[in-house]
Design goal:
With 480 residues, this protein is an alpha/beta fold. It is 40% helix and 23% strand. Strand 21, helix 13 and strand 22 form a beta-alpha-beta unit. The model has no long low-confidence stretch (mean pLDDT 98). Bound molecules: ligand TXE.
Amino acid sequence: MMQLQNFIGGQLVAPAAGRYLPLVEPATGQVFAQVPDSDAADVDAAVQAAEVALPAWRALPAEERGRLLVRLAELIEQNLDRLARAESQDNGKPLSLARTLDIPRAASNFAFFGTAAQHFSSEAHVQEGVAVNYTVRHPLGVVACISPWNLPLYLFTWKIAPALAAGCCVVAKPSEVTPYTAFLLSGLAQEAGLPAGVLNIVHGTGPGAGQALIEHPGIRAISFTGGTRTGQHIARSAAPQFKKLSLELGGKNPNLVFADCDLTEAVRTSIRSSFANQGQICLCGSRIFVERPVYEQFKAEFLAQVQALTVGDPLLETTRQGALVSEAHLQKVLSYIDLAHQEGGRLLTGGHRVQVPGRCADGFFLEPTVFEGLAPDCRVNQEEIFGPVVTLTPFDTEEEALHWANGTDYGLSATIWTRDLTRAHRVAHQLHAGVVWVNTWLHRDLRTPFGGMKNSGVGREGGLEALRFFTEPQNVCVKL
Ligand code: TXE
C-alpha cells in the first residue's frame, strides 16, 4: 500500500513516531494509502528546518524567489493529468473538474504570486523640508498554512504561494482527509529546486499535527481555511502568542434572482453554484431567493437541469456529481435532509443516497437535492451544510430579499441576477458579503481581495492583500 511521507528540510521523511492513518477513496469506500499521523516532534523538526532556511530565502531578490515559484507552476502544468487523477481519487470530485479547475488553479497560484512579488512596493511619506518616512515590509518569518479537503491543492497553494513570494518560510498542513496532492507537491518542489526547508509539509490530524503547529512558538502567522468552529479554536489558541491570523471560514451564501434577469443564464449558472464539487465549496450559493413573478419558471427549469446531473464514478467524463468526501460527511449532509423534512420543507428532487454500480458500489454518493417551503430563519437555511442541498424561496420586494440574504451569521459571498445595473450596485453594496457576483459565479481574479464578513472569517487573501498579510510594515523616519 502506498505510504505518504512528510516533507521536511527538503527530504521526504516518515513521521517520527511511525504512526499512519488510513486514506479512503470516497468513490469506492476503500483504503488506498496511508498518511502520516504526525505529532509535535514532526512539527518541531519542520519549524526548525524552516528557521534554518529563512535567512537565505528572505535575502533572495523577489525576482529569484519568483522564478522558482514560476518553475513550480510549470511543473504542476506538466503533471496536470497525474495530479488531477490523484485529486479525484482522494476527494471524490469528478476528474473533469480536477483537470479544469483545481489543478490549473494550483499552477496559476504559483505563477501569479511568483510574479506579484516583483510588483509589490511600499509607501513613502514626504514632509517637505522636514522628514521623509518610508515603509519597509519585512517577511514575517516562519508561517503556518492549514487547508481543508474540499479544494485540496487549490487552497493549499493559494496560501503557500504568497507566503513564499513574500519571503517567508512555510510549514503547511493539508487536510488529513485529502493529503495526496500535497504529498505529490513535495516531489515537484524538490524538482523545481526550491531550497531545502523553505517549504515543509507535515501531514496529520487537526488535534494532532494541526494543534502542535498553531501552538508552536516559532510560528509567526497562521493562514487557515476550514470550518468556522475550528477557526474560533485557532483564534483562541493563537491569541496569547499574538500570532497574525487570516481565517477563511464557512458560508451560507444567498443567490438572488430578480425577475428582470437573463433567466436561462441564471438557471444554468445556479446549477453550478449549487452543485459544483457536490456543493462542497465555501462559495456555493445554497439559499436561492427568486422574485415571485419568475419563481415557478425558474423552479421548473432548475429542477429539470438538476435531474439531468449524472451522479457516478468520478473518473467517467459523463459524471457531473462525484462522491462526497467521506462517509461521516455524507451522514452529516443526510442529517440536514432529515432536518429539512422536520422543519416542514417540501422535497422537490433528490434527498437520497445513490448506489452506483460496479467499482463505486461502496462510495459516498448523494442525489443533488432541492427543497422549498422552508423559513429563511430555520436551521437548514442558517447552518452550513456543505453538500449538494439547496433551498428555493420566493420573494416579493428587494428589501425582503436583502433582509433574508443578510439574515445569517455568515457573510462570505453572494450572487445577484438582474439586468438593472443600478439595482445591481445598490443591492451589492447592501449585502453583508466579502465577495458579490453580479450575473456570474466563481469568477475569480487573483488580484482581488478575498475573504468573508461576520463569522465567515477575518482578514483578506488574494493579490497584494496576501503579500501584506505575510509581511510586517516598519516605518523608517529620516530627518531632512
Ligand atoms: O474542517 P476543519 P472539517 C466546513 C464545512 C464542514 C466543516 C467541518 O461545513 O462540514 O467545516 O469540516 C485542520 N488546529 N468547511 O472538519 O476541521 C484540519 O486538519 C489546527 C468549510 O473538515 O476546519 C484541516 O487541515 N488545525 C470549508 C483544516 O483544519 C486544525 C472547507 C480544516 O479542517 C485543528 C472545509 C486544530 N485544532 C470545511 N483542527 C471552507 N470554508 O472552505 C482541525 N484542523
